[in-house]
Design a protein that fits this description.
globular; five-stranded antiparallel β-sheet; signal
Length: about 500
């Protein structure tokens, strides 16, 4: 009997030491958690609190708290009335609608304990969507537009807010035909400056030598803190054996600083698109639910098309400047961009900051019952996430069934570990009009629990997450889970969306 009790005690100790409880709180009236955001620079998680606005999808945010990896709490603001507070790419400034005048709101920028007001007119007719939007896992996602309840685009730093217009000073831009102007709004003064950009060479992107596509040629941008920004374009050869990622860097006066190209090529494989957030997913019916900080988290039963920007995505190492380009390859060429495909595996190409290729890693996924049965590329949701100084590559699918593959990719060599696989189901009846954590995926192994697909990925890479979830009671209210995979480990958000929430960090 003593041995049994000792075994139980040791198991409980191991289970408890495997994770840190960052916060465990009850909901309060008019002060419930409404969203969260991970800050990679400070390695903190922010919880926004407030209350819902009637029958809309929006919340009024009144308070924000940040928690570090030890659970130490900092109050960022309180007694405010804001909509969609969003941190900048520097993690030092955040932007929100001032909800005290909801019909013509100004913008509040919080910075160094100061509040800076930017009037609505200063940001009028400004297309910020080209700068994308960061999701929960800090992946920069290409977007087309935003609704008022969504987080703001990643278009601002500690000094300016940016956007684009065409030659007619309108925010609708045809990249192939229009002139492009960078619009820069200074946060402190509200002053706005307009500068014409030198466009990238379109002959490098379209023509007879390149793959056919239904969508028009376009671009993305990435704001590099308070220093400069990159304009990203991509090309794919007509035989789908070569693709080139072009990165053109501009200063904040709109002047070109440098141009780099990152060529990728195959001998006996073919490039194909995937839902990797490198290009915008174009929905042909309106998604019913979308999370503030997860632009790719939507019901997947709508028709989605992808453009050439979705041929791959890239991760840039902030310390070294190294570029990791990743995507899916096919065993047969498609007839056009986003055509019916035959996925065979994934690739990662590593380049240094000057564009020199350091290694390439091509890896087949042996999944004839699952992976290779997917022929619609938008169904393949892929990620390359930093995890303990290496990468986790994952592909998740919502199609004839739902499943995820994952593997570790070593930064130094590109070698991979054994593939992990997990199958689950999508039950959209779990979705709500709005909720702190809103997702729909379930498994018979975890009764009365609802997960995001990235939480299933988290289960495949850290067995302690599975052990914890199996020890959470199956009784009581249904629990919802979201995960953030990052260098510190795995942040797990747990809530019943009614009475309480908990955030844990799995470091081991």
């Amino acid at each position: 009997m003593k041995k049994i009790l000792l075994s139980i005690a040791l198991f409980s100790y191991v289970l408890l030491s495997a994770q840190t409880v960052i916060v465990d709180e009850k909901f309060e009236d008019k002060n419930e958690p409404v969203d969260f955001q991970y800050l990679p620079n400070s390695k903190k998680i922010v919880v926004y609190k407030g209350f819902g606005i009637g029958m809309t999808l929006s919340y009024i945010t009144t308070r924000a708290l940040s928690f570090d990896t030890s659970g130490n709490k900092t109050v960022l603001f309180e007694n405010e009335k804001l909509i969609s507070p969003t941190f900048s790419v520097t993690n030092n400034t955040f932007k929100a609608y001032d909800a005290t005048n909801i019909f013509k709101p100004s913008y509040k920028f919080f910075q160094d304990n100061n509040i800076l007001i930017v009037k609505n007119d200063a940001l009028k007719d400004l297309n910020t969507s080209y700068f994308g939007r960061y999701d929960y896992n800090n992946v920069l996602c290409s977007v087309i537009d935003r609704l008022p309840n969504m987080s703001f685009d990643a278009s601002f730093n500690d000094i300016y807010d940016f956007g684009f217009t065409n030659q007619k000073e309108k925010d609708k831009i045809n990249f192939e035909k229009d002139e492009i102007y960078l619009e820069r709004v200074e946060i402190k003064t509200n002053s706005r400056k307009r500068m014409k950009l030198e466009k990238p060479d379109l002959t490098l992107l379209k023509g007879e030598l390149f793959a056919k596509q239904d969508s028009k040629t376009s671009f993305n941008c990435k704001l590099n803190g308070n220093e400069n920004f990159d304009l990203i374009t991509k090309s794919v050869s007509a035989d789908f054996k070569t693709t080139i990622l072009y990165k053109t860097t501009y200063d904040f006066e709109g002047k070109k600083i440098k141009e780099l190209s990152f060529p990728l090529s195959f001998n006996d494989k073919f490039f194909m698109t995937s839902n990797n957030n490198g290009g915008a997913a174009i929905y042909h019916s309106t998604p019913s639910f979308q999370s503030n900080y997860n632009p790719s988290s939507v019901i997947k039963d709508v028709s989605i098309s992808l453009d050439v920007l979705s041929i791959n995505h890239y991760f840039e190492d902030k310390k070294t400047g190294d570029i990791y380009v990743y995507g899916i390859f096919s065993e047969k060429p498609t007839k056009k961009v986003d055509g019916s495909a035959s996925p065979k595996g994934f690739y990662v190409f590593k380049f240094d900051k000057n564009g020199t290729k350091l290694w390439e890693s091509l890896n087949e996924i042996d999944g004839k019952d699952f992976f290779e049965r997917i022929h619609t590329s938008s169904r393949l949701q892929i990620n390359l996430l930093e995890y303990k100084d290496d990468f986790i590559f994952s592909v998740s699918v919502n199609d004839f069934t739902e499943f995820s593959y994952s593997t570790t990719v070593t930064k130094s060599t590109g070698s991979i570990s054994k593939f992990n696989f997990i199958e689950y189901n999508n039950n959209t009846s779990n979705l709500k009009m709005k909720a702190f954590v809103n997702n729909s995926y379930v498994s018979d192994d975890f009764k009365n629990k609802v997960f995001s697909q990235m939480t299933f990925v988290a289960m495949t890479i850290n067995p302690n997450v599975v052990s914890y979830l199996k020890n959470v009671s199956k009784e009581g209210k249904k629990l919802y889970y979201e995960s953030i995979i990052c260098n510190e480990g795995i942040w797990l958000i747990q809530t019943d969306n009614k009475e309480s929430y908990k955030i844990l960090l799995f470091k081991d």
